[in-house]
Design brief:
Distance between the termini of chain B: 36 Å
Distance between the termini of chain A: 63 Å
CATH architecture of the largest domain in chain A: Orthogonal Bundle
Strand content of chain A: 5-15%
Strand content of chain B: 5-15%
Oligomer: heterodimer
Helix content of chain A: 55-70%
Structural class of chain A: alpha+beta
Order of helices and strands of chain B: HEHEHEHEEHEHHEHEEHEHHHHH
Number of strands of chain A: 8
Shape of chain B: globular
Strand order of the largest sheet of chain B: 3-2-1-4-7-6-10-5
CATH class of the largest domain in chain A: Mainly Alpha
CATH topology of the largest domain in chain A: Helix Hairpins
CATH class of chain B: Alpha Beta
Chain lengths: ~375, ~400
Amino acid sequence: MATTTDKKLAIDIPTGSPDRAGVARAGVGRPGRLQGLAYKGVVRLYRLFAILALYAVLFGVLAYGFVMGFYAINTSWAAPVILSPADDKSLDFTQKLVTSKQSLEDLSLDKKRLESSISEMTEHRASLLALEPELQAAIARERKHNRATGPQLSDLERQKQADNAKTQALMSQVNQLQAGIERDLAAGLITKGDAAAQRVALNQAQTSFTDSRISEVLLTDSILEKTTAHTKSLDVLDKQAELRSEIAQLDIALNLAEKQIREESQQIDRLRQAIATAKQTPYYLSVSGGTRINFAFIPYDNQGSARVGAPVYDCYLDMIACRQVGTVKQIFAGEEHAMHPIFKSDMRGFLIQMDLDHPDSAKSKTVFLGRKPLLF
Amino acid sequence: MAPVLMWLILFLCLLITLAKYTLGAILKWSIPDAKVAKDYGYQPTVSVILPCYNEGRAVYDAIASLSRSDYPNHLFEVIAQDDCSVDDSYRWILEAQRDFTNISISVGRNEVNSGKARSVCNALSRSSAEIVISVDSDCIFDRQAIRELAACFCEEKIGAVGGRVGVRNPNDGVITAIQTLVYYAAFHLYKIPENWTRSVGCISGCLFAVRRELLLKIESVVRERHWFGIPVNQGEDRFMTHLILLEGYGTYTNNDALCWTTVPATPGELFKQQLRWRQSILRDLFFTVRKLPQHVRQLHPNALLHMVLTPLGAIVALLMAITMLAGNPTSWLGPQPLLVYLVIAAVLSWAIRKYSARETLKNPLAFGAYVSWWLVSNLFLTPLALCTMDSRDWGTRGKQEEASLGHNNR
C-alpha cells in the first residue's frame, strides 16, 4: 500500500485497491487531483469553522460557568417584578381587601346598633331602679300604718262585739213588743197610727242591729287585712319581684351587648390593622395607583443590600457595564416567593419598591443594589 | 419555539425508549424469532484477524485466550497484524506464536502505520477461510466464542455476526461500574430490536465475524475510506456493518459469544473513547443521509429506523442537556434523576449478578454518578466530535500510554 502525505494539511490520499465498483457504490474512494484540491479547501474551511466553533463552545461554557458562579456568590442582585392589577395575586389581594372593608363596615354598623341598644337599656334600667325605692317606701308606710291601726281596730271590734251582744239581747224582746202593740191595737188602747209608728220603730231597731253586725264583720276583715299577709301585699311583692327580674334581665342583656361590642371592637381594630398593613403592600400600590410602580424581589440571602435610598444598577449581560438607574424607595415586610432568575429554584424573600429613572430597567432579568457587582 | 423544542425532545426520548429498550425487552422475552436458530454442527473454516498497535502484553493474552478455544483447532487460524507498534507488541505476538503451537498463528506487520481498518484488510489477504473474525487485541475471548459465532452463519443471509463484550474490570472504580451496566444494557436490550430484523447497525469491533467473500467485496471501500481526503482510522466496525447491510446481508449479535475487555477507568480515557465513538456515530449519520435513497430502497425499515435513532439519540441528548441547563440549571442535582438511575442500576445489577456473575458489581449505587457523566458527555461529546472529524487517531491506541483503552465502536 502506497501512501502520500501532505504534511501541511496532514491529509493522506490512499491509493486503494482496484475495486472501483464497491467504492463508487459506497460513495468513498480515491479522489482525483481536482477533487483532492477541493478536499483541501473544504478541510481548511472545516478546520477554521471547527476552531471557531470550539472556541465559541469553550467561551460559552466558561461564560455559563462564570454566570452560575457569579449568581451563586453575589448577594446584591434583585429581580425586577412588574405587578399588574390583573395578576392573580393582585386580583386575590383586591378581593380580600374589598371583603375586609365590607366586614369592617358591617361590624361598625353593628357596633353602633349595639351601643344604641345599650343606651336605651341603661335608661330603662335606671327608671326601673328608680321605682324600687318608691315601692319599698310605700310598703313600709303601709306596714307602719297597719301596725298602728290594727290594734285599735281590734279593740273597737271587741267593743263592737259587746255592743252587738247587748243589742241582740234587747232584740229578743222585739216579738213581745210586737205582740203588745197588736194587743193594744186590738184593745183599742192605741190607734192604728200609733201602732204603725211603733212597728216602724221596732223595724228600725232591727235594721240598726243588722247594720251593727255587718260593721262587726267588716271590722274583722279590716283587722285581718292589717294584721296578716294579705293577698294585696303579695301582689305588691310580686310586682317588686317582677321589677327586680326585669332589671336583672336588662343587666344580662347589657353585659352581652357590652361583651359583643368589645369583641367587635377588637375585630374592627384587627381589620383596620390588616387593612392598614395591606395598604403598605406592593399589591395595594399596584391596584390602587394610577401610575406605574416598579418593584423588585430580594431573596433573604441578599437582604443586607436592601436599604432605602440605596442606588439601583442595571447591567448589560446581567452583570457587566452597569449604570445607576434609580434608588430603593421602600422595603416591604411581607414574605414573597419567587423563582431564581438563573437557577430557576424556588426562593423566599421580600419585595422592594424602586424609584427608577429608566423604566426599561424594570424589564431586566436582574438589577443590583448598593454597588456595581463587578466594579464596572 | 422553546415549547416546540421541549415537545420534540420528549417525543424523541419516548421514541428511543420505546423503540430500543422497551421493544428490546419485549422481543428478548417474548419473540423466539428474534434469535438466530444456531447450528453448532455447521463448522466453517475461520481466520481470526488480530490487528495490533501498542498493546504490549495484552496481545499475548488475547492470543492465549484464543488458543483455549473449543472450536476445532484445525478449522481456525490466528492472523496477527502489527501496525508498526512502537512498544513491544510485535515481540509479544512472536512469543505467542512460539508458545501456542496448538493453533496456527500467522504474523504480519504493516510497512507503515495504517490504522486498524487497513490492518484488517492487509491481514485479510493472508486468509483463505470461509469466515473471518476481526477482534481487538486487548480482549480476552471466551472458549465458546468462535463456535458461537460460526453457528450463526447457518442462516445464509447473515453476513456478519458479533459477540457480546463483557467488562473485565467492573470494580476498578465508579467509571468502570457505570460502563459495566451500560454495556450490559446495550447488548441485552438496546441491540435486541436490531437483532429481530437481522439489522444490527454496529457490530462491536471486539468480536466481529464476517463471511470472507463479503469482506473481500467491501474491503476496498473500507481500506479507502476517508473524510475529505483524510483517512478514517476509527469506527471501522460500524462502517463495515453498515456496508454489509447495504450489500443486502443480515447482521446479528450473538450474546452467547463472549469476549472481555478492559474498559477505561479514568474520566480522561473514557472521554477520549466516547469521543471516538461519537465521531463514528456522526460519520455514520452523514453517510446514511448522503445515501438515504439507497438506504430506503435496500434496508429493512427497522434497520433504517435504528440507524437514524442512534445518532438522533446523541443529538437529542445534546439538546436535552442544553435545554436543561438553560431552563433549570440545578434540575440535574435534584433527587429524581438520581432516583431513576439508581432504580436502573438496581435492576441491571440484579440481572448481571444472576446471568453474568463475572461482572457482578460490588457497588452498583455508583451508577448514580451517571447523572454527572450523562450531562458532561452529552453536552461536550457531540459538538467536539463534530469539530474533530479530521481526527487521525488509530482508534483504541493513539498513544502508548492509552494501553488500557477498550475497544472500537460497539
